[in-house]
Structure formats: structure tokens, C-alpha cells
Amino acid sequence: MTLWPRSLFGRLALLLLLVTLISQATAIILFRQDRAALLSRQFGDTKILQLKALRAGLANADPKSTAGALASFGDAYHARIVPDEEHRFVGGPPQNPVLVELLERLKEELGPETDLRIQPRLQLLWIKLQAGEHAYWAGFQLPPRPGEDAPSRALEWSLIALAVLLASAYFFARYLARPLRQLNDAVANVGDGRLPPPLPEAGPSEIASLNRGFNQMLANLRRADEDRALLLAGVSHDLRTPLARLRLGIEVGAQDASMHEGMISDIVEMDKIIGQFLEFARDNREVPLEMAQLNDIVASAVERYQKAGNDVRFRRGELPLLPLRSTAMSRLIANLIDNALSYGAPPVDIATRANERSAVLDVTDRGPGIAADQVERLKRPFTRGEPARTGGAGAGLGLAIVERIARMHAATFELLPREGGGTCARVSFPTAKSATDS
User: Fold this and answer.
1) Is 99 in contact with 117 (CB distance < 8 Å)?
2) N or C terminus of the chain: which is more exposed, having fewer CB within 10 Å?
3) Residues 6+ away with beta carbon under 8 Å from 103
4) Domain range holding 304?
5) Is residue 172 part of a domain?
6) Is the four-CA dihedral 308, 312, 316, 317 of positive or negative sign?
């Protein structure tokens, strides 16, 4: 069992209670010190001169009329004066260092017989004066406190302050706990397999940042679910047509060479579609980034296509080393070249260059081009372009794979019209310098 509360409200209330108690204790100590300092200031040079005059008057007073003389001097100096024989009524010695210092000063000014006592109940400060052969105690009223019932009023104000602080802690804890409860419920829904609505990105900056990260996670989960659903739907849709043709060819017997060649083409198409599905479903985020030269990856891919007899050209530019996942980048380049060869027209020109903020990869073709309003649609999974550009086989995942790999590298992927006709697929990678500037 622990005394430390488990709830946010309990911890905040306990913290405020401790702070209040410490502040009250500090205020009382400071008040006492200030009051003692006020007493010391009160008995300055003027007061000491009055005490000397009082002592001289008492020394010259007629001993036969002591009571009347003491009353007369008391009225004149606003003090209560009693003989030394009644000193048992004058309280106790000073304990505060300031009052002890005051006593030493009074002894220096009025003589070593001088003494000082405090009578807290009557709020009197007693000073012993040696007047001739007799000694007297002069009682002066202490400086008034802020209110006659200062202890009780201090207690009342402390209780009021404590109640206000506890109420503030309650409402503040509820204010903080509300988004935390919402986050807890949302996490529980995710754990049960349900995706909750996005959390509000408002309130304190820490809560807003936490909710923003959670909402981003929800968006990624939704995207993953949508991609999985599209992947399963695309498998059944895109493989059904070549499978039907293969079944028809088997039933007919595939006697003629054209049908046999068509069956082989269907198998190649199915293999390509399955390969795109696997590429799209594969997640390379766990593969660490390594500093690599993009030109070398592009050159290796271009060499493979050139050996296969494709009209692919590469113009190498000066590029810095970039943090890349080499295998994923090879797939990105291959998908861009395949897309240009399938839906565009040769030659396919590839160029790299660097500017102040990014390293740029351009893959261009001389096909019919892409309408501006179709660009974002074509980046979505299982989407193909207009009939003029859909002469090749595939599942419509090539550009979606490029978009995903580009996002993994914090790069941007654009489809732009090429001057003179055709399409320019551009991937821009941020450089180390641009990341530092931002």
C-alpha cells in the first residue's frame, strides 16, 4: 500500500496541498521576522531619547507620590510603568535575534542594567530602566497585527485558499483527464480490432501532439486495411481473365500455335500481376537506410533493360550520397521504366540531377501523356489510365508502388507532361543540406 495517489486529480491535489502548507509556513516565519524588524525600527534614536527623558523624570520624581507620578509619566509617554518589584508580570526574555540585538543596543544607550521582555498575551514590550536608586519597567504597546484575531483569521484564509486550490485542482485534473480518457477508449477500440474516429487535436500542446500521432497511426491502419482489401479484390479480379483463357485453351486442346503462344502470354501476365501484388504487399520500412549513390542503382537497372533489347537511355548527373533502401529503389526504378515501356512510347529517357534542396530522378517517354486531372487517380492501387495508355498487362499497382516507396524515403512523386509530348515521372529526394535548412 502506498500513500501516493494513483489518479491524476489525487496527485495534483496532494501537490497543491504541500505547496500551500509550505507557503503558509514560510509566510508565518517571514511575518514574525518582519514584525521583529518593525519593533527594532520603532525603537530608533527618537524612541531612545524618549526613554532617556523618561528615566530622568522617574529619577527626579517624589518617592512619596510614586503611584501618581508613574501614572502621570505613563500618560505622557504612552506607556505602562511599574516598579521593578512587580517584574513578574512583564513576560519573558526575547528569543528573536532581532530583539536580542535591540536589547544590546538599549544596554549601550541606557546602561547595562537595561533589560527587555515580551508579554505576548497583552501585546506589550517591557523595558527595564534604572532611574537613580530605583528600577522601573516601562511597557509599550506592540505594533498592531493585521487584525486583532490574526491567528484565527490566518487559519480561515488558509482554509479558504486550500479549498480554492483543491477546486482548481479538481477542474484542472478533469480538463486534463478528458482527452486521456478519450485516448484510453480509442486505444481499447484498436485493441479490439475496431478503428475509432480521429481524436481532437486541441488542448495543451502535449495532448494535441499525442492525439496527432495517434490519428496518424489510425490513418496508417486504415490505409493498410484499404490496401489489403484492394489487394484481395485485385487478385480475384485481375487473375480471373487469364485463368479463364487458360481454361478455354486447355478445353480446346491448344492445337494451334497461336493459342499455345497465347497461353504462354497469359502465364507471363499472371506472373507479372502476382509479382506486383507481392511488391505492393511487401513493407520495406524495417530495412535500414544506407548512404548510397542513386546513379549506380539507376545504371544497374538501365543495363538490364538494355540487354533485353529495350530502348532505354540514361543521362547521369552529379548527385550526392542519399539515405536509400537499395532494393526498394531498384523496384521503384523498374516500375517507372515498365510503366513508360507499357503505356508510353520509346525511347525512355532517364536523367538525374541535383539542385540546392533535392536530388531529382526523371523517367520520360514519348507516349500520349496523362491528363492533369488523372494524375492523382493513377497513383491509387489497381488504377489504370485511359484506353490509349492501357495496352500493357498489369494489375494497376506500378505507380502505387512507386508512390509508397517514395514516401518511405520522404521523397515526392509527380507525373508531369513532357515538352514535345509524353510523360515525365519525377521523384525528388531531399538532400542532407535541405534537411538541415528546414
Assistant:
1) no
2) N
3) 94, 114, 115, 116
4) 287-437
5) no
6) negative
